[in-house]
Amino acid sequence: MGKTLNLCDCLLTMGREWHDLGRLTEAAGVLHRLAGFRDLSAPVAEEAHARLATIYLRQNDYRKARRHLTSALIYRPSHAHYYYQYATALHHDPQADAARAVRYYRQAQRLDPDEPRYWSDCGRLYLQLGRTEEGVSVLRKALSLSRNDPVIIAKLVEGLCLAGRAHEARDVLRAARFRNPRDPRFRKLWNDFQFQQVVDAQAEPAMVPEPVILPFVRREVRTDLPKLPGRILRLDRASKQGPHLPRPAWLPDRKHAP
After folding, report:
1. Neighbour tally for 88: CB within 10 Å
2. Which of 95, 129, 234, 245 is the most buried (most CB within 10 A)?
3. pTM of this structure
């Protein structure tokens, strides 16, 4: 039993080191071996599954991340960050139903209502689902928790523009620039917003009046002209004659054709 405990501690320490150094493949191999042991203590098993879930989220392997998050939630079912990660794994997985992530975002918000990421990512999901007003409301909540986060402000501006409330988005950006006058990130948000407003204004179709159908002009046919066989009568005017040039004078010392 003592040797098993020592081996588990060694594997967990090694997995932590590989994970902290960013060597995710090596860390995942060690932690997988550790998670396969039976009779692990709850803290060791929870940490192993939580780190594996974090590794697979970074590698965009969302199905495996959800599998390990389910195991981590068994050991600590009231941990808000696990619900947030599970919602993220559903939200960004193209093979999963993104609408299911709303429930896990809300659970994370109930367990830790002061974390702005839980609100901002949930608001972005609402926007993607077409629930614009709910998304704007949730993003305003996130902004109230972190008033100087440019990522949250950018998401809120996007939601307000989608809702057709560009004037409110302008007010949000002005207030952010007033609070952070020397931060280039907020200046960039303002410039991008102004540029997009100009592009949208130029892209608006011009008001076209009702279509007018022009009548076809029929060619006049004159029936009073005589019909002569073998001749073509012109209906247009005759061409104008060219100017007459003077004939050369007759001189006796020159030969002229008769």
Report:
1. 22
2. 129
3. 0.72
Whether residue 22 has pLDDT greater than 80: yes
Residue 54 CB partners (closer than 8 Å, separation 6+): 19, 65, 85
Q: Would you state the structure tokens that stand for residue 149, as one six-digit string?
A: 């986060």
- What's the CA gap between 150 and 250, in Å, rounded? 100
Residue 120 CA to residue 137 CA, distance in Å, equals 10
The domains of the chain, with CATH numbers, are 1-101 (1.25.40.10), 114-201 (1.25.40.10)
Rounded distance, CA 19 to CA 47, Å?
A: 12
- 16-21: list long-range contacts, CB under 8 Å, 24+ apart: 16/51, 19/51, 19/54, 19/55
Could you read off the pLDDT of 94-111 as tens digits, one per residue? 999 999 999 999 999 999
pLDDT at 94: 92
